[in-house]
Amino acid sequence: MSKRTIITAGVVLTMDAAYSVCKNGYIVIENGRISAVGEGEAPRAQEGDEQVNLRGALVMPGLINCHAHSPMTITRGMCEGVSLFTMDGFLNTLRRYESFEDAAMASASTGVSCAEMIRTGTTCFADQYFYADKIFTEVDNAGLRAVIAYGIVELGDEKRRLQELANADSFLRLCAEHGRIKGWVGPHAFFVDNSLDLIREEIAMAKKYQAGFHIHFATSNEENDYCAEHFGCSAIEKMEDLGILEVPILAAHSITVSDPDIKRMARYPFYPVLAPSAAMRSGFPAAPVKAMREADVTVVLGTDNVCNCNTYDMLAEMGTAGKLIIHREQDVKAIKARELVSMATRQGAAALGMEAEIGSLEKGKKADLIALDLSDIGWAPFCGQDYYTQLAYSVSGYSVSHSMVDGNWLMKDKKLLTVDYENYVRRMEEDTRELLRRMGS
Q1: Is 356 domain-assigned?
Q2: For 403, which of 130, 155, 231, 417 is 20 to 30 Å away at the CA?
Q3: Final residue before a domain boundary, out of 319, 351, 383
Q4: Are residues 24 and 158 in the same domain?
Q5: How far is the C-alpha of 203 from the C-alpha of 198, rounded, in Å?
Q6: In 10 A of CB 389, how many CB atoms?
Q7: Beta pairing partners, 251
């Protein structure tokens, strides 16, 4: 019989379809998957089993960050006072930094990002950026789960287009046989900086590898303005016409979408990703999350880059998202706390095509889970509150004490086991000094 891990917990928040909560619960893990979850007395341990007592903790599915750019940690805090959601901010701030960076700099900054995600409860994330091969290596070493989209910015350069397509194809082949890491296609923004010729090639590539698209969409009206001028329709209508919507899409931001566009989105595997802190810090309005959810569009949650958001703490993003949605609608019932938690677990898994594997703690699913210390400040009182409200609004990711992916521990008792954080920070500091030297700063 294979070795098992038997976890006993004060609370097991399963995030299954019924939102089942097991007090004095247990989870049994075999071969990287959950073989049992329940309430009461755990199965008797056998010789060789690992027994983990988390009676003072809440155990739940690992958090899923559906929009990140992990190498951009190198520029955290360097974009203050700039709206990165504008083309001016993108070209004259981010692209300026990026023009002085190189692939070697992506390793340490991604390692720092992986450490921060593990520390704050993220076990799976969707990344879209350059240097995808470097991200792949660091994610693999860290033991995290990820969907990494090879980021493509063309800006009308045919030579660049051909090179980027070749690089993306090579990267997708690299990911094809990996168990924890999926490869997707990452057009930065359709129509804005990806031409029609490139878009058609990207559709073919996504279908060839059964991959999805990870894009920025409707941050402002740029796509709609372009499509109205050139095609006489909205961006969503043109995307439907080109066949883009037949491919699963993570669409970061999705702020300037109309009601007819929302109805069209609902017909396809189209997943808007709310990144509330990044939008607010760039001075942009909230996406129409309530309208999208009422149309049966699955909206999920991400941090975006930490130049804009400054942290990978997904629990903090839950709270910010809830407040922003409620504030936008002027309706205190616009979204429930448990729905915010679902956006970062079960629904996030659905957006990544992994709902059968992760996102909830159920028999047969992969053992991706976290534990949060219930003795930390922010939880009490326990009478009269529910755990979803506490997670979304009361505590932070720094209450996370344990993290597991595929049945393997990434962190125990708040000690990182797979990432040498101090070494990555030292290397990233060296890279940052070199970056600033190249820029003449």
Answers
A1: no
A2: 130
A3: 351
A4: no
A5: 9
A6: 16
A7: 215, 272
pLDDT of residue 96: 84
Six-digit token string for 119: 């520390």
What is the average pLDDT score of the chain? 95
Q: How many helices (H) and strands (E) does the chain have?
A: 16, 16
Q: Is the pLDDT of residue 2 over 90?
A: no
Q: Residue 382 sits in which domain range?
A: 4-62+365-416
CATH number, position 373: 2.30.40.10
Mean pLDDT for the stretch of residues 378-387: 88
* 214/293 same-domain check: yes
pLDDT per residue over 46-91, tens digit each? 999 999 999 999 999 999 999 999 999 999 988 778 887 877 777 7
Torsion of CA 286, 291, 297, 303, to 10 degrees: 10
Q: At what angle do helices 158-175 and 196-208 cross, to 10 degrees?
A: 10
Please answer whether residues 149 and 132 qualify as being in contact, where contact means their C-beta atoms are separated by less than 8 angstroms.
yes
* Spatial separation of the C-alpha atoms in residues 289 and 108, rounded to whole Å: 35
The alpha carbon of residue 315 and the mean position of all alpha carbons in its chain are separated, in whole angstroms, by 12
**Tokens (6 digits) for 23:** 């007090």
Q: How far apart are CA 307 and CA 319, in angstroms?
A: 19
Give the distance between the most distant pair of CA atoms in the chain: 70
Rg (CA), the chain: 21
Q: In the chain, pLDDT over 90 holds for what percent of residues?
A: 86
Based on the fold, state whether residues 347 and 396 are members of the same structural domain.
no
Q: Are residues 329 and 384 in the same domain?
A: no
Calpha distance 438→432 (Å, rounded): 10
**Identity of the residue numbered 436:** L
223 close to 258: Cβ distance less than 8 angstroms:
no
Distance from C-alpha of 58 to C-alpha of 371, rounded to nearest angstrom = 5
In tens, the pLDDT along 298-314 reads 999 999 999 888 999 99
